[in-house]
Design a protein that fits this description.
Layout lengths: L2 E4 L9 E7 L6 E2 L4 E6 L4 E5 L4 E6 L6 E3 L3 E6 L21 H6 L22 H10 L17 H5 L9 H10 L14 H8 L24 H16 L2 E9 L1 H15 L7 H15 L5 E4 L2 E4 L5 E3 L1 E3 L2 E3 L2 E2 L7 H16 L5 H4 L4 E5 L18 E15 L2 E15 L5 H16 L7
Parallel strand pairs: 12-16, 16-17
Antiparallel strand pairs: 1-8, 2-4, 2-7, 3-6, 4-5, 6-8, 9-18, 10-11, 12-15, 13-14, 17-18
């Protein structure tokens, strides 16, 4: 019996996933519980286990390719099993089958004319056929279906326009780079290497793929993480009327606090950073300003009992914001340990969905990059975000004398629908007071 392997749905907002790596090759034996492949979403990378014993008959979605949730990405069965018709067109060399089975196989029926489908009718198509049509830029409704009741199969998409056979990855790259595969002159199936050779100048391309003015490189489709960041930042920018407030902090006491605590924590395997101190201080301030530790939607303000503080973490060419839960109830040591564990999980792709949801406030630190002022964008549905800047030795006046102090700017971006200027300034001032007088945390 052939079993379909589906693209999992790993969260309420997940619509598609990208195969990062297959752990087995076609023809390999697999067992229930084996890690079959890893899938990347717009937020996380997860390993997907095999649900059954058998042989990996066919991989429909190759590494680096994307597929909709609940669509078929592979088939598992016994040696000699045939995969469904929808995968026949894109399969490599067919597996050996019994002679009696081969004798019963009938040639595919000729495609029905496209006009047989009424205008505006619902289009029945296999998930893999939809994927192929999308990659090739075809209107799925214009493709005649040869499956039962006119269902569109993958082979229908492949045969829709006369031209060279193209691997899914090659078709995807050709669409991204604007390469006309019919001009490549490849004998047999067009593969990824053929398209890349054309992109690099090894074969003729269409006018659409010609090098743009200014010697720009051809545009490429960004990865799921970058697409998610783009969508979320656009939504935040259009949702929240925001104002950024900047306040200087004398970091002398904060540096002394870290210096006195870091060796003791280091002996326990914990590296104490300024971010950990900032998170603990912010949590204290959030408990005193409940309207900041809240979210706003449909003219309803929801206050949160605890401060779940997120820390923006760079991952590859993107940014993720895992959050430490209930920072207001935890010790500085606990905050430091959990934060470092989350940072490691973020960079190794092992974050859980619970680590990414439920945040009430975010801290974004650009101090290590020498930034002295910036306007961070709110992480929806939160109402504020704190930007942390570089600590710079600066001449300041203390008791009528000019002295050098380690000064740091804090930039608070707040949603003006709920947090007006006075509240934002008081909240930011409270954070400054706690940082400059950390003994206040004991009161």
């Amino acid at each position: 019996m052939v079993t379909e392997v589906l693209m999992p749905k790993l969260g309420l907002t997940m619509t598609e996933g990208t195969i990062e790596e297959w752990k087995f090759k076609e023809g390999d034996a697999v067992k229930k519980g084996d890690i079959l492949f890893s899938v990347a979403t717009d937020k996380l990378t997860n390993d997907v286990e095999c649900d059954t014993d058998g042989v990996l008959l066919k991989i429909a979605v190759q590494a680096g390719e994307s597929s909709e949730c609940k669509s078929v990405v592979a088939w598992i069965g016994e040696p000699g099993d045939q995969i469904p018709d929808g995968a026949a067109a894109s399969a490599p060399a067919p597996m050996a089958v019994p002679a009696e089975t081969a004798a019963k196989a009938a040639p595919a029926a000729a495609p029905a004319p496209a006009a047989a489908r009424p205008a505006g009718a619902y289009v029945l198509a296999m998930p893999f056929a939809k994927k192929l049509a999308k990659e090739k830029g075809y209107d799925i409704a214009a493709i005649p279906g040869t499956g039962p009741n006119g269902v569109i199969l993958a082979r229908d998409v492949e045969n829709f326009v006369a031209g060279p056979k193209t691997s899914p990855m090659a078709a995807k790259l050709a669409a991204e780079y604007g390469v006309d595969v019919s001009t490549l002159g490849v004998a047999g199936r067009v593969m990824k290497a053929d398209v890349m050779a054309a992109v690099q100048g090894g074969a003729p391309q269409t006018a659409a793929a010609a090098e743009p003015e200014g010697n720009d490189l051809p545009p490429v489709k960004v990865n799921p993480l970058r697409r998610s960041i783009a969508a979320n930042m656009t939504a935040s920018w259009t949702t929240s009327p925001r104002v950024t407030y900047t306040h200087p902090v004398d970091a002398t006491c904060m540096k002394e606090l870290r210096e006195k605590l870091k060796d003791g924590l280091k002996a326990e395997g914990i590296k104490l950073t300024f971010n950990h101190i900032l998170m603990k201080v912010a949590a204290r301030a959030l408990m005193e300003f409940p309207d900041v530790n809240a979210s706003f939607a449909d003219n309803m303000l929801t206050h949160h009992r605890h401060a779940n503080i997120g820390l923006a973490v760079a991952k590859g060419d993107g940014l993720m914001v895992p959050n430490v839960k209930c920072v207001d109830t935890k010790s500085l040591k606990e905050v430091a340990r959990e934060t470092e564990n989350l940072i490691e999980a973020t960079r190794s792709g092992k974050l859980g969905m619970e680590d990414m949801t439920g945040g009430t406030f975010t801290i974004s630190s650009l101090g290590p990059y020498g930034i002295t002022s910036f306007s961070p964008i709110i992480n929806q549905p939160e109402l504020a975000i704190l930007g942390v800047c570089d600590i710079v030795d600066t001449p300041v006046v203390r008791n009528g004398e000019i002295v050098i102090r380690p000064m740091m700017n804090l930039s608070l971006t707040a949603d003006h629908r709920v947090i007006d200027g006075v509240m934002a300034c008081k909240f930011l001032q409270r954070i400054v007071d706690l940082l400059e007088n950390p003994y206040l945390l004991l009161v």
